[in-house]
Design brief:
Arc Repressor Mutant, subunit A, two-stranded antiparallel sheet, globular, 158 residues, 2 strands, homodimer, 6 helices
Chain lengths: 158, 158
């Protein structure tokens, strides 16, 4: 991309930067809090929660590389998390029907039960963190974020 | 914290969760794009950008532990980044006046110049990514994020 240092000094550019820094601050604050709560209440981590969440939405199982792509985390890290989930009886590797070389990972029944309780707690934590937001705050902020997400998609098509 | 599974099913709780997921999606999308651009244009990384940014705001230098605390990254990772910046002549370790045991890190003049150009590019990238947002979108989204940040602070005081 080409830099335009002169336009970079425009007031709107500064306002966009301020918006991004606030978005990052809010996102980091919530993520840090989730991280702390997962550790304290479930001795778990966000990447582990995300892997279980991805598996819970794929009843037929996922390839390791699919999980890695979905979560944008390296295959090596995913392997470590899946190994640990398997050791604890929460996930298992299964052979893909018709292709004995292809392995899929899925949650066990115990894994599904454990993730259900974590997901419920996760929703409750978010509900507590954002308890001071009114129904109007919630719907308007969501609407503004939709506009922002659409703008981001637009900027990729340029 | 106490879980209230029954309240967790309320529509507002689902809306708060949806808001959080959109916030995370937007934040991740922008961060991923910044990461790509830093790598492509400057062979740099976000943690490295963040360390230089922290140092640029501290002309008298920072202790390694301060940088670590500010960025919520382990001391080990910060050491690696600062070592690399030093090797490239962008940062240096100095002795704290009056306390020869305490070492501070600060940017060299070359480091300040390099960071200035990265910071300018960073602002320009954000300006490009959010170019489709009108002045009203920007000010209203910022205002809503301020409300959200205040709600988060409130939930910590409970």
């Amino acid at each position: 991309m080409t830099l335009h240092p002169q336009s970079s000094q425009s007031p709107l550019s500064k306002e966009r930067l301020r918006l991004w820094l606030k978005l990052l601050k809010a996102s980091n604050a919530i993520e840090d809090d989730l991280r702390r709560k997962l550790r304290a209440d479930y001795a778990s981590t966000l990447p582990r929660f995300d892997v279980m969440s991805a598996l819970s939405r794929a009843p037929d199982g996922l390839k390791m590389s699919d999980i890695s792509k979905m979560l944008k985390v390296s295959n090596g890290n995913i392997t470590g998390i899946v190994d640990k989930l398997s050791d604890e009886g929460l996930a298992q590797r299964v052979t893909k029907p018709g292709d004995r070389r292809a392995h899929l990972v899925c949650l066990t029944q115990k894994g599904k039960d454990v993730f259900s309780s974590h997901a419920l707690a996760h929703e409750e934590w978010i509900n507590d963190m954002l308890a001071d937001l009114s129904a109007d705050d919630i719907s308007e902020t969501t609407r503004r974020l939709d506009t922002l997400l659409a703008a981001l998609r637009g900027s990729k098509d340029d």
